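Hi Prof. W.,

I finally got the FAD-binding protein prediction working! I wasn't sure whether to trim anything, so I left the full sequence exactly as given:
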Amino acid sequence: MKKVLIVGAGPVGLIIGCYLNKYGIDFDIIDKNTHSTTWSKALSVSPATIKAFHGLALAGELTAQGKQVQSIYAWYKNRKFLHIDNRHLPTCYPFHVSIPQPRTEKILETALAEAGQLVKRGHQLVSWRREEGRYHVSLLDDARRACS
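And this is what came out:
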């Protein structure tokens, strides 16, 4: 039986895990950090990503916990250099959702936990190799013990 290893429990790793779970594919998610992040690396979630949440029946929760943003302006030295207007996009989500990354991750991690899938925190990928059509990985846990 093949098993997928997802390295990193940020929004991308978690959403991949949710989709693998949806389609019945066996997987593990590891993250070198012992706890989820407390700060954001992004300002908002894009319409395309909201649609990905929709496919997991999580778009409603995402939009309820965040703030819908139809237009985004960026200024530098009193000059507008960017304007994103989502109102006319041909999608059922013509907006970004402004939501802190920790909250986005919590939505995804909760969905995984409810499905019996837990993130293995404090585990780091050290190396991998392919041998006879199989992949072998070496991990370290948070106590720096070798795992495989």
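The chain is about 30% helix and 30% strand. Does that look reasonable to you?

Thanks,
D.
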